[in-house]
């Protein structure tokens, strides 16, 4: 169990940030042979495992993620700076201080200094980090890049919604719905992990990073002396999923009442989403989704609110009741 104590100063310094490189790292873990990914990721994993097996450019990653080598240093993932450009993060990786690389490699892989996979990080850290960044770039291009436009929208939406929650409802609302493996009891944020550690208020500022591939692993980064980084699952990972057949014939009462397209929009609103976010998830034109949302809003089935330039939609109590009664979905008491 990880316990992070947050006083008022620490809470005020808490930030949310995007990090495509962290998503790429978690995606690596998700497709490893010993993993059994859940349904939303299975279609993606089939392709990703082919890339992992066959692309020799990934060798530096193969070496670091070989069986039993799961204690990886933060130099694999630089401090999140809120960018949506993975190549900006890879430039930061290439520029990592060589002394930091040597120090962290020795700590994370004790007694392994003579192992061939580790020696480059100790003898020529700059070249080793450059090779690692190149391997990451190859993995990104083959396994992640085709999905990134949709993933980017999901994580950016998550940051906007969470930031709005933090600003309007306070930290209790932010942490309360943040992470299924975490628990917030003021002033302590607890994270379920296989190691035990405690951090007192004021030691470091907290950065929260939403990830689409967080099922691969929840990242908890501690090597940075100024920042404690914690990842969490962004909503909408279903964009990567195989789509099962919907209810057939007269079994889809919601579809018969509203029409299949409008019913699909209603079912997909498990959290605040934009028109484009819904369109990505459903494979529909944004104009079509916008028309459905307008009618659903007129019927008080969904509500809308603006955050910056984006408009977010979510279910009203009427919408949740409709799903519960006609679609048999247990969302009647779901949190808004």
TrEMBL record:
The organism named in the record is Streptomyces roseicoloratus
Q: Which residues form a coiled coil?
A: none
Keyword vocabulary terms for this entry: DNA-binding, Transcription, Transcription regulation
The record ties this protein, via SMART domains, to:
HTH_ARSR, HTH_CRP
Where is the HTH arsR-type domain positioned along the sequence? 242-336
UniProt key word Heme: no
Q: Which PROSITE patterns match?
A: HTH_ARSR_2
Q: Report what the protein is called.
A: Helix-turn-helix domain-containing protein
Q: Which Gene3D superfamilies match?
A: Winged helix-like DNA-binding domain superfamily/Winged helix DNA-binding domain (1.10.10.10)
């Amino acid at each position: 169990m990880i316990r992070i104590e947050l006083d008022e100063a620490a809470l005020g310094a808490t930030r949310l940030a995007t990090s495509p490189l962290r998503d790429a790292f978690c995606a690596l873990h998700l497709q490893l042979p010993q993993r059994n990914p859940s349904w939303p990721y299975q279609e993606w994993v089939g392709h990703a495992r082919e890339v992992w097996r066959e692309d020799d450019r990934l060798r530096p990653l193969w070496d670091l993620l070989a069986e039993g080598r799961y204690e990886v240093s933060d130099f694999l993932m630089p401090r999140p700076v809120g960018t949506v450009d993975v190549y900006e993060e890879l430039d930061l990786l290439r520029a990592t201080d060589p002394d930091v690389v040597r120090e962290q490699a020795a700590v994370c892989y004790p007694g392994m200094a003579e192992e061939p996979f580790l020696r480059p990080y100790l003898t020529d850290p700059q070249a080793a980090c450059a090779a690692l960044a190149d391997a990451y770039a190859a993995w990104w291009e083959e396994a992640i890049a085709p999905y990134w436009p949709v993933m980017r929208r999901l994580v950016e939406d998550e940051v906007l919604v969470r930031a709005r929650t933090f600003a309007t409802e306070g930290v209790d609302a932010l942490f309360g719905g943040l992470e299924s493996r975490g628990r917030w009891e003021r002033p302590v944020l607890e994270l379920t992990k296989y190691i035990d550690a405690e951090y007192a208020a004021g030691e470091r500022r907290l950065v929260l990073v939403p990830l689409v591939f967080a099922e691969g692993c929840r990242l908890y980064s501690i090597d940075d002396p100024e920042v404690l980084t914690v990842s969490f699952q962004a909503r909408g990972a279903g964009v990567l999923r195989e789509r099962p057949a919907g209810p057939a014939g007269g079994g889809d009462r919601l579809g018969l009442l509203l029409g299949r397209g409008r019913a699909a929009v209603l079912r997909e609103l498990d959290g605040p989403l934009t028109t484009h976010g819904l369109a990505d998830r459903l494979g529909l034109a944004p104009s079509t989704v916008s028309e459905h949302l307008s009618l659903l809003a007129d019927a008080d089935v969904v509500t809308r609110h603006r955050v910056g330039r984006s408009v977010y939609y979510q279910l009203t109590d009427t919408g949740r009741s409709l799903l519960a009664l006609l679609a048999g979905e247990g969302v009647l008491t779901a949190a808004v």
